[in-house]
């Protein structure tokens, strides 16, 4: 259905429902949203208000018979009573329409439901995992990726996504690094803004957009030991300066919902944390949307040892600012009684209800509850050529070239004998990555299929070794092969007879994501042995990594001539990788997370602190280092190569001394000195030399993605203001202090041109 037809249908609906609007004053579109909320809430019972705070997982076929017996029947009854505000995991136009019809046409007040779903990096047509997208440093492409995801999800009846994940994380052991934007709060903030605007568009009531959800609030990316669901214990300085900025950016971008996190902070579960939800989010930041718990996290406060029982958990969560209970079943059973006993003020319930209703009004659900229920549009949108073209573009932009000795890449397009080795090379499932619940299994383009499009080379495929020994399912552990070497000889034979070997190695798609923490970050199973055995017979290897987190690959970094970080790139994965390998696309990605030399370095991140003994001055052991490995990362944040080369020169500032409030203008000349066109991410870092709170050795404060034709020079300009020069103290106050600042503009976080200025 096009927008004109949809508008006409809405106009007819408005005329037909005019009589209903007379009896339900909150349907009067001439009034403001806040007035309409007030009118509706005057008609609501306490039970109906609490019902808006209740979210259930849709666990039966709504187009079939109503459920009988058990929790499904109870949920059905609650929907008919108006005691459910939202459902998750109900998708597809027929299903959504069926249950929305119950809520709108069979309840006393007809309040429409929100339908939430984990649309993390696409719906059916998948973009790269979010960490891979962050490697593009291309904010317009990332925004467009979220727009594609929103369009497909909305066409399937959904109106709310549990994304974006804006957790900053610097420990690759934690599986959920694949969902975020990496280790840097500045880049993370820019990407948070792009994703929120991509999901929500210019108008939330447009039927092609959905409400976004910034998660997980807060500090989930800093769980101890990178272990899922673990505690978090950090300083206020780290909280305010590293964790919170992307969440604040999401609020400023207009995000309508937040999700709290499973972890504790300062000994208090985030779900019951008033400091986070009341003081910061709804207080200092003025957030007007609502907060949803993570799955059963209200009930889990009992297991944490923070709440005595369900009633205590409901009380503490509601008072702390958790507005909606996801699948704990605790609000709907406990809150009414708690209010009647005077243990929870009804004003707490009113505040949460108003916030939830506000989002429903903003989405336009009261004016057209079935606006997301168009089967023709569902059929036309999902899996469209335009969407596949867009995710292919995003996938190519996400690839990072880590090494290219002797210009082994790009591959010649004819007359070359190539051996393609690795189970992941023919895998059509793992490239989809984790968190792709709506996508069908085995729908990715494999690397084998992508390379087969280039028909003028001889291509021989050998599996070499299986990575997993069981069927990969989202809720189950992946079982890794470490004993079956039966495919080694065939792989070695193929390599011996080839001029170039392309090896696709890495993680199974479900080895990262929620519940997928790892203590070893090398190539899983016997893939490392396979790599070394093939190297013995033909060292002319291009290693393509498929993974959802930074890996530790020191042997490959030292020995393999060409390494491509291919991540898990979604539906068009194989086409994107093939086009980069053959040079039809010149890679420009830069790492959003540091790659460790070994897992013992984790967490490792570029914006670390000097310490009192950063270097060896006296030729002894008493300085900050490891005895058995360099303390630097294998590949630093911001690192990435190209098939061309770039030269930086003439770093200039408009002056060397500034007053508070002045704009600091910087520029650098960047020249493409290679033989092909390319793009470069020019990065600006600062260091506050002396401050009232110790500042990192470097902080990203600007970047520019620049396209340069071969031989072309461009002057790249940056402006620093107080927004970039300041930091938060331990009370959350923003400070801009006088002093000397070092500046670096370069091609990664470790290399570039330097200068300094003074702020007086």
Keywords for this structure?
760 residues; alpha/beta; six-stranded mixed beta sheet; five-stranded parallel beta sheet; 24 helices; 31% helix; globular; disordered N terminus
Topology:
Blueprint: H1 3-16, H2 18-23, H3 33-43, H4 46-52, E1 54-57, H5 70-81, E2 86-88, H6 93-105, E3 114-117, H7 130-134, H8 139-155, E4 160-161, H9 185-200, E5 213-217, H10 236-243, H11 245-252, E6 257-260, E7 264-265, E8 268-269, H12 274-284, E9 290-292, H13 300-304, H14 310-320, E10 325-326, H15 331-340, H16 346-362, H17 375-381, H18 385-398, E11 400-404, E12 417-421, H19 447-451, E13 458-462, H20 488-496, E14 500-506, H21 527-537, E15 541-546, H22 554-559, E16 562-565, H23 573-581, E17 646-653, E18 657-658, E19 664-672, E20 678-688, E21 699-708, E22 713-720, H24 722-725, E23 727-728, E24 734-735, E25 739-748, E26 751-759
Parallel strand pairs: 1-2, 1-10, 2-3, 3-4, 5-6, 6-9, 12-13, 12-14, 14-15, 15-16, 18-26
Antiparallel strand pairs: 7-8, 11-16, 17-19, 19-22, 20-21, 20-25, 23-24, 25-26
Helix pairs in contact: 3-16, 4-15, 4-16, 8-9, 8-17, 8-18, 9-11, 14-15, 18-23, 20-21
């Amino acid at each position: 259905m096009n927008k004109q037809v949809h508008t006409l249908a809405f106009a007819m609906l408005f005329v037909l429902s005019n009589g209903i609007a007379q009896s339900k004053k909150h349907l009067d579109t001439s009034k403001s949203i806040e007035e309409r909320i007030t009118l509706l809430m005057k008609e609501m019972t306490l039970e109906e208000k609490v019902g808006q705070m209740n979210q259930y997982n849709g666990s039966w076929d709504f187009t079939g018979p109503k459920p009988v017996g058990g929790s499904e029947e109870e949920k059905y009854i609650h929907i008919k009573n108006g005691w459910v505000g939202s459902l998750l995991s109900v998708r597809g136009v027929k299903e959504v329409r069926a249950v929305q019809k119950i809520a709108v046409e069979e309840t006393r007040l007809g309040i429409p439901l929100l339908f939430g779903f984990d649309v993390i990096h696409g719906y059916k047509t998948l973009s790269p995992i979010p960490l891979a997208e962050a490697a593009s440093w291309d904010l317009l492409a990332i925004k467009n990726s979220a727009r594609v995801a929103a369009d497909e999800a909305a066409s399937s009846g959904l109106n709310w996504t549990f994304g974006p994940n804006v957790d900053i994380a610097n420990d690759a052991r934690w599986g959920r690094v694949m969902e975020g934007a990496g280790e840097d709060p500045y880049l993370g903030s820019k990407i948070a803004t792009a994703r929120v605007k991509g999901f929500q568009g210019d108008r939330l009531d447009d039927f092609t957009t959905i409400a976004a959800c910034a998660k997980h609030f807060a500090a989930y990316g800093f769980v101890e030991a990178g272990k899922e669901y673990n505690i978090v214990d950090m300083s206020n300085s780290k909280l305010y300066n590293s964790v919170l900025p992307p969440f604040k950016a999401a609020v400023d971008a207009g995000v309508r919902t937040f999700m709290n996190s499973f972890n504790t902070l300062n000994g208090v579960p985030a779900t019951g944390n008033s400091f986070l939800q009341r003081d910061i989010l709804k207080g200092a930041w003025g957030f007007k949307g609502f907060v949803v718990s993570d799955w059963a996290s209200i009930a889990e406060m009992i297991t944490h040892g923070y709440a005595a029982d369900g009633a205590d958990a409901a009380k503490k969560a509601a008072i702390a600012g958790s507005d909606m209970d996801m699948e704990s079943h605790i609000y709907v059973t406990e809150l009414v009684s708690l209010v009647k006993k005077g243990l929870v003020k009804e004003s707490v319930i009113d505040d949460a209800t108003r916030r939830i209703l506000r989002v429903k009004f903003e989405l336009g659900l009261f004016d057209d509850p079935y606006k997301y229920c168009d089967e023709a549009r569902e059929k036309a949108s999902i899996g469209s050529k335009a969407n596949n073209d867009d995710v292919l573009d995003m996938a190519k932009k996400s690839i990072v070239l880590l090494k290219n000795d002797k210009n082994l890449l790009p591959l010649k397009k004819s007359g070359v004998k190539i051996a393609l080795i690795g189970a992941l090379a023919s895998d059509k499932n793992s490239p989809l990555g984790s968190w792709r619940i709506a996508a069908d299994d085995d729908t990715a383009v494999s690397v084998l299929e992508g390379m087969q499009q280039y028909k003028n080379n001889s291509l021989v495929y050998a599996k070499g070794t299986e990575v997993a020994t069981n069927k990969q399912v989202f809720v189950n552990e992946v079982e890794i092969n470490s004993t079956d070497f039966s495919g080694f000889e065939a792989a070695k034979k193929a390599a011996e007879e080839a001029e170039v070997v392309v090896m696709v190695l890495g993680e199974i798609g479900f080895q990262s994501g929620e519940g997928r923490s790892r203590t070893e970050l090398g190539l899983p199973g016997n893939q490392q042995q396979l790599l070394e055995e093939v190297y013995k017979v033909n060292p002319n290897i291009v290693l393509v990594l498929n993974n959802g987190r930074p890996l530790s690959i020191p042997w490959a970094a030292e020995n393999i001539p060409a390494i491509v970080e291919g991540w898990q790139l979604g539906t068009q994965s194989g086409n994107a990788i093939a086009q980069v390998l053959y040079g039809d696309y010149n890679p420009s990605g830069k790492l959003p997370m540091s790659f460790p030399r070994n897992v013992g370095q984790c967490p490792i991140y570029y914006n670390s602190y000097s310490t009192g003994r950063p270097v060896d001055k006296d030729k002894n052991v008493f300085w900050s280092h490891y005895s058995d490995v360099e303390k630097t990362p294998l590949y630093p944040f911001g690192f990435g190569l190209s098939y061309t080369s770039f030269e930086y020169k003439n770093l200039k500032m408009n002056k060397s001394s500034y007053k508070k409030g002045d704009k600091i203008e910087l520029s650098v000349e960047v020249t493409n000195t290679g033989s092909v066109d390319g793009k470069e991410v020019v990065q600006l870092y600062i260091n506050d030399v002396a401050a009232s709170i110790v500042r990192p050795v470097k902080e990203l404060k600007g970047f520019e993605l620049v396209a340069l034709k071969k031989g072309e020079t461009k002057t790249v300009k940056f402006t620093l203001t107080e927004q970039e020069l300041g930091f938060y103290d331990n009370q959350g106050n923003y400070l801009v202090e006088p002093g000397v600042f070092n500046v670096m503009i370069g091609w990664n976080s470790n290399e570039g041109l330097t200068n300094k200025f003074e702020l007086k």
